[in-house]
Amino acid sequence: TGMTHSLHRSGDIESQKMDYVWFMYQTKGVNDVGIKPKALEFIAVAEAVGSENWGDVKTGPKLKYSIEEIKENISDKSRIRGIFTKKEQVVEFLKQIKEKDLGMSVIISGVLSEVIPACKEAGVTPHSINYSLGVWGKKDTLPDETTLAVTTMCGHHMIPPKFVNYVMRRVKKGKATPEEGAKMLAEFCYCGIFNHVRCADIIKEQTKLEEKEA
Q1: Non-local CB neighbours of 38 within 8 Å, separated by 6+ positions
Q2: CATH architecture of 4-122
Q3: d(CA 196, CA 200)
Q4: What average pLDDT does the segment 180-184 reach?
Q5: What is the reported pTM?
């Protein structure tokens, strides 16, 4: 389930099972005034359950900006979003947010075979579900699958495929660790929904594969 810009994350399904996106959304004309206190409560819960990356598109991700700066800049135009790497985090997040009853929309995006059971365990019934039907058209012009697994973690496509290749080369040459490379890429995604933990694993796997083939 999810907003459309988080639906098209690609790559190995087992890899995607460590990739969950969470959102807090306000509705125009309904609950979009004075959202900051509620946004801060969402952030507190996300931090408590270990959200590895999150941000506000009006400032950027916590991997690039301090948490204090992001919080300070929250306004009624803010969009608070982030990621988890474990289903258990999703369950606990949903339980706590449901208990707080803040009156804001909550969206979880991820592999449905993981997300639906997480919702059930948390005692949450999804209001609606969006599906990705895949990619259509001239797919031969797309980057390779490994690159797409990285770039699609930024739904607004702010991460250039060529920069992914550049980071991969730096890691292969020993000029950066997979974790450092992943954080470099994460800084381009201002929503805060880029999963740098999963990205580091993808970089490691690709580097190992290329070393074997060399």
Answers
A1: 24, 102, 103, 104
A2: 2-Layer Sandwich (3.30)
A3: 6
A4: 98
A5: 0.94
